[in-house]
Amino acid sequence: MQARDIMTVPVVAVVDSDTLHAAARILLDSGISAAPVVNRSRLLVGIISEVDLIARLAIPEMQDVSSRGISLRDSLEAATAFVRNHARLVRDVMSAAVITATEETPIEELATIILRRGIKRLPVVRNGQVVGIVSRVDLLRMLYPTPPVDCIAGVRQAGPSSRQQDLDLQGLVSRTLESLPWYRAWPIETNVLHGAVHLWGRVPDAAVRQAYLMAAADVAVDRDIVDHMHVIAALRHEAGRPASSSR
């Protein structure tokens, strides 16, 4: 299989001349953590993520200081911080160096790129234009197909749930799980369907699985948490953790 077989289309993208407010609205409304940035000719010029949009909050306002005794490095860092702190457009904060794939890229190579580079969304390009996106969830759906709707028809719901409500809850749960200290070692994906939270991925043991389930339940109160996670003990070695005997 190749990228064209699993990539998500159409692609949600932002334009480099968009305001940061507009870009943030697109990410929130689409329930995604990052989006490719294109120019007016629809050519890929960068990528913008939630981190890019909130990083300015971590940079304090520059204070007036004497230039005497300030090193060149300090001056460059100060100028960079000033630009980011006062940025208004996407082009000012986006990452210009973008890792991409083509429609012919094998899925094994896609998985390797995503895992080794620690990225979540990989743009697929043709002649400089974005034609699709491959994310971790696309790979997971290929490995562990989502059960048909009728298979989860009996899942309890907290009430009527629109697709937008599902996306809002999905974004909230995803951000919560991504903040957990072990997420980087064993990332999982979140899907919300008909008000129920589905967790997909591979974890090293039952403790990590239970921790994810509990963390999701703390956010999605009164919602069913459906577990699709697979326990693979070998993952303990991949994350540099010593293996322990199973109980």
Verbal overview:
By secondary structure, this protein is an alpha/beta fold. Helix content is 37%, strand content 19%. The chain contains 10 helices and 8 strands. The protein has a 3-stranded mixed β-sheet with strand order 1-2-3. Strands 6-7-8 form a 3-stranded mixed β-sheet, with helices on both faces. Helix 9 links the parallel strand 7 and strand 8. Helix 8 packs across helix 9. The longest helix has 16 residues. The protein is globular. The C terminus is likely disordered.
Helix content: 25-40%
Number of strands: 8
Give the helix tally. 10
Mean pLDDT: 80
The general outline is globular
Assembly state = single chain
- The sequence of SSEs as H and E is HEHEEHHHHEEHHEEHEH
Which stretches are low in confidence, meaning pLDDT under 50 for 5 or more residues running? 60-68, 147-158, 240-247
Task: Kindly summarize this structure in a few lines.
The chain has 247 residues and is α/β, with parallel strands linked by helices. Helices cover 37% and strands 19% of the residues. The protein has ten helices and eight strands.
Topology:
Blueprint: H1 3-6, E1 14-15, H2 20-30, E2 34-38, E3 44-49, H3 50-54, H4 72-85, H5 90-93, H6 107-117, E4 121-126, E5 129-135, H7 136-143, H8 163-178, E6 188-193, E7 196-203, H9 206-219, E8 225-231, H10 235-238
Parallel strand pairs: 1-2, 7-8
Antiparallel strand pairs: 2-3, 4-5, 6-7
Helix pairs in contact: 8-9
